[in-house]
Amino acid sequence: MMNSNQFFRKNTLLFFFLLLSTVALRAQSNPVIASITPGEYSTDWELFESTELVNIYYMYVDCSDPVNGVYPEQILFKVENKTNSKIYVYWDYVLEYNNKPTKSSPDENLVQVTLDANQSTEGNCANLHKTKLGIFYRYIDGEDVLTDFQFQNLSEHKLN
Known about the structure:
Elements: H1 4-27, H2 31-35, E1 46-50, E2 54-62, E3 72-81, E4 87-97, E5 100-101, E6 110-115, E7 120-122, H3 128-131, E8 134-139, E9 146-158
Antiparallel strand pairs: 1-2, 2-3, 3-7, 3-8, 4-5, 4-6, 4-9
């Protein structure tokens, strides 16, 4: 028969094992975040997601603006229409900074893209606020801030 101290020790060990396992799985949940080495910027677009109608690529870049004294790093996205039809694609970003979900207004993280047949569009440092095809990763020489992101409710429709 197990006494209360043995029971407590076994349950405590089990709890910590499960907690560490969950943390390890969580850290590996987003392949884009896992692939980023801070300060080592992308030179090519890398495939993030492929659906029936689109390919979505990402690129990790330095969007420094020394004139204004800001030095952000961003993850940019490129959306490519794989069809011979006009399409509409949308999703919501779900972002976590320092392992805490962000709170935002309903439209703040909504991305909407309309593309003609076989067309693509991409985010860049200059158009991020207009296209929303990018997310803040961290400030250069700052601590890693973005810890996870997801495309929630990704939906695509042919328009013709």
